[in-house]
Amino acid sequence: MPESESGGRGELAIRCRGLAKRFGETVALRSVDLEVRRGECFGLLGPNGAGKTTTIEILEGLQFPDAGEVEVLGLGWADSSAELRSRLGIQLQETELPERLKVREVVALFRAMTPRGPTVESLIDQVLLGDKSGSLVRQLSGGQKQRLSLACALAGDPDILFLDEPTTGLDPQSRRHIWDICNEFRARGGTILLTTHFMDEAERLADRLAIIDQGKVLVEGSPRELIAGLGGDHIVDFEMSAPLDPSVYSTLPAVTRVDSVVGHQRLATLAPHRTIQALFQLAEQSGVEMTALSTHNATLDDVFLAMTGRQLRDN
Ligand SMILES: Nc1ncnc2c1ncn2[C@@H]1O[C@H](COP(=O)(O)OP(=O)(O)OP(=O)(O)O)[C@@H](O)[C@H]1O
Ligand SMILES: [Mg+2]
Asked: Is residue 251 part of a domain?
């Protein structure tokens, strides 16, 4: 696998420092620093407009930053673009593939542009499109088109796969197909940088991730580390008929964090049963009623909320 040529795991596949980018008045990136290790799957998680595509496209050499440094596989875009092109596989957020070509022809076209790589048949098999090989692109479903564009990204047997929102708009089964293809690529030693606004996708695929919002990295770590940062692995979400002073909630048993989300309170807790029992007592003593109550295991969405006061999935 390419990895043996390019060094072992543990080295950096991608490194950027101080990336900044404006589009007129819009500040897309403020100062983004990232380090992606070889062999890992790194996720950029953030809401619409956070700067994910801008970041990934700068790293892919498709956009120029206004400021900052980029190193990919230890090389820079200014003097090694030809070598980098041959070692990277890129799936854009929106890919327009030629609608009148057959699946097999599209993959052959991409394969012909790369100096090395698997056979056209094996690429088609990797993305489970064997039975669609003779179909026209315009006859494919959304999920099949995404898999075809993944086959194109894999055509040159890349060291790094860049995936910008690989599963947006897909049904659960198609999403799992894409995840399986990513996991197989990883198992062969490949590095992945992906963007997503799905917390479950980030949790499922990424070894480490950066949560990005308004052009800045808010926090970085493994999904487990980020969730552990909340202090409690359960969330109690509730609403009272009249608001109480939120500081009172932090005194309830097992509570590690208190957050407010439009009309709701969210408590991170180590022991939801104890917290909920105390919450009912508090409501009674205060003469208010609990009008909504739910609990769940803490997720990256809760991490995002704790950092921004907003919910990731509603953006
Ligand atoms: N070509 C452009 N011209 C003007 N503004 C742009 C351009 N590209 C991006 N922007 C702006 O930069 C900001 C970051 O956009 P970007 O596409 O990087 O976000 P994103 O995180 O990928 O969002 P999404 O989840 O919607 O894909 C947004 O405010 C966007 O409107
Ligand atoms: Mg985007």
From this structure: yes
Ligand 1 binding pocket mutation candidate from 30, 34, 52, 60 (most atoms within 8 A of CB): 52
Q: Tens digit of pLDDT per residue, the chain (315 long)?
A: 444 444 444 489 999 999 999 999 999 999 999 999 999 999 999 999 999 999 999 999 999 999 999 999 999 999 999 999 999 999 998 888 999 999 999 999 999 999 999 999 999 999 999 999 999 999 999 889 999 999 999 999 999 999 999 998 888 988 999 999 999 999 999 999 999 988 889 999 999 999 999 999 999 999 999 999 999 899 999 999 998 998 999 999 999 999 988 878 999 999 999 999 999 999 999 999 999 999 999 999 899 988 888 877 653
β 264-269/67-72 pair status = unpaired
**Amino acid at position 58, single letter:** I
Specify whether 241 is located in the same domain as 211: no
3 state SS of 100: coil
Residue showing tokens 């041959």: 86
Q: How far apart are CA 133 and CA 183, in angstroms?
A: 23
Count of structural domains within the chain = 2
Same domain assignment for residues 204 and 248: no
Ligand 1 interacting residues, C-beta cut-off 6 A: 23, 26, 28, 46, 48-54, 93, 197
